[in-house]
Amino acid sequence: MSPVHRHGSRVPNMQMIIASRLTDGRVVFLGDGGAWVDSIECGVVLEKEEDAARRMSEAELAVTDNRIFDPYFIDVVVEDGERRPTKVREAIRAFGPSVRTDLSAGGWDWHVQIR
To answer: Is the entire prediction scored with pTM above 0.90?
Structure first.
C-alpha cells in the first residue's frame, strides 16, 4: 500500500539507496530495474524492509560489477510532491554544493528546502 501524498504533507519512514558512480564519482540513486540514475526524483523509494533488503542486494552486485561504490540507505520524505533527504549531508550530495549554488544539480536552493 503506498501512502497518499497531499500538497504540503510529509510522508516519513521512506528510504532510497544512494551511491557514487565508479566512472566519474557522480552521486547516483538506485532506480527501477537496477539502473543507476542521476536524479533523486528518478530513484526508487523503499517503504518495506523486504524491498530494501532486495534492492541493497542489487546495489551490492553493482559494486561487484564495478559500476558503483559505497551504496547505502538514506532517509527521505516526500514534501509538496518532491523527494527530500532528511539529512543535510545527503541533500548536498543529492542537489549539489552548498556554497556555489550555481553549480548545483538542477539549480536547487538547499538553504530554503532543508528542514
So the answer is: no
